[in-house]
Amino acid sequence: MFIKQLETGYLDNFSYIVGCPQTGKALVIDPGPEVEAIVADAQAAGLQIETIVNTHGHGDHTAGNAALKDRTGARVIIHSADADRYPAADRFLTDETPLQVGEILLEVIHTPGHTPGGICLHARGNLFTGDTLFVGDSGRTDLAGGHRPTLGASIRRLMQLPDDTVVWPGHDYGPTPSSTIGWEKRHNVNAREYGFHVPP
Questions:
Q1: pTM of the complete model beyond 0.90
Q2: 138 lies in which domain range?
Q3: Which of 34, 78, 164, 172 is most buried as measured by Cβ atoms within 10 A of its Cβ?
Q4: Which residue(s) pair with 51 in the sheet?
Q5: Can you say whether residue 112 is alpha, beta or left, with left for phi > 0 and alpha for psi between -120 and 50 degrees?
């Protein structure tokens, strides 16, 4: 499984290329505006981008959708609860049916709280968390559609994953660009509030 984390946009965003080396197929999570760089990185890895997935509908996570679709022909996928934020998507998720890229199956986990349609993607010990969970923190709930207790419930669900699951966040807001579920249980500033704290 190929994973490329790219710094994009103007809010310390991360975009991700997730690829299947066996088939050469790839998807992009939350493409930023630097579309040519995303395409170049995929091509350098021998991958063809077929799908774009937005973890939620905020503009800094959908900024590259249209240009990347024009460049590659990829289909754009977003949760139906965030359809009003990006109505130009090709597919609106209504359940947690897994997504597939080549031979890789990605579990869709609906994680509302930052926005109603927030999702995370889980595959082969890797968790792409968008703005649900950051390294050491969690997403905002003071924007339209945000709800702190709902976000807490979503994060508690993520904490059921194995401790060695790698957390790939939607922004570079923490001390490191990625972490693990086990690290978050011990160090996330919201661990006690959200009820998943494990003493160091």
A1: yes
A2: 2-194
A3: 78
A4: 27, 75
A5: beta
